[in-house]
Amino acid sequence: MVKKLLNSGILAVVALALVAESAPAQKTAKPEPVCARAAFFEMYKPARLWAKDMLVLSVGSNEVPGIRSEGGKFPMWTAIFVSPSRRSARTFTYSVIEHGATPKGVFMGVEQAWTGATAQVQPFRIDDFQVDSDAAYQAALHKAGAWVKQHPDKPVALSLGSTSRFPSPVWFLLWGNKTSGYAVYVNAMTGTVMKGN
């Protein structure tokens, strides 16, 4: 009886080992770039805990070596929030992967003094951020398409902000650089292209 139980136990162990060997290996998911709004709302949560009256000052894309950005999606995004009551600003970063000193997920920078809005840089409400980065990219590409085809090696950078020049926050998309590139503004509430080179 004991011998029978031992044999049964050995067979069970062997069977489990065979099943484990035949099971497909679990693949680690490769980090993928994300749209601005997905990253933004991850940063918004701790920013709201920091200051209940916080407003958005800017949102910007960041490149990370080894992860290709495409179609308005990037592996890293940075947002600056401000608090009028505290007269402070705080930079938050969201990254899909650890990169240098930037950890994976949300990283909150130190609180810094903020002197208030200027004509060039004005805070805006979260409700004014309606158009995501991928939609802004497609709208801008429609305008910049011919230039982009002629310069396929030029990367694009996206930044979202508000200025007295426009009635609502805008996406600023720049292929290349300011001296040799193509720039387009896209309304962040409607998705309308506002200006191109």
Report on this structure:
It is a single chain. By secondary structure, the protein is an alpha+beta fold. The chain has one domain (36-196). 27% of the residues lie in helices and 27% in strands. The protein has 3 helices and 9 strands; from the N terminus they run ααβββββαββββ. The chain has helices at residues 2-22, 36-50, 133-150, and strands at residues 55-62, 76-83, 88-95, 105-108, 112-113, 156-161, 170-176, 181-187, 193-196. Strands 1, 2, 3, 4, 5, 6, 7, 8 and 9 form a 9-stranded antiparallel beta sheet that branches. The N and C termini lie far apart (88 Å). 32% of the residues are buried. The model is unreliable at 2-6 and 10-20 (pLDDT under 50).
Number of helices: 3
* Strand/helix succession: HHEEEEEHEEEE
Percentage beta strand: 25-35%
Helix content: 25-40%
Overall strand count? 9
Uncertain runs are: 2-6, 10-20
- Indicate the overall shape: globular
Rg for CA atoms: 24 Å
Biggest β-sheet: count, sense, barrel? 9 strands, antiparallel
Determine the structural class based on helices, strands and strand pairing.
alpha+beta
Span between termini: 88 Å
Structural domain tally: 1
Average pLDDT over all residues: 89
Question: Key features?
Answer:
197 residues, alpha+beta, nine-stranded antiparallel β-sheet
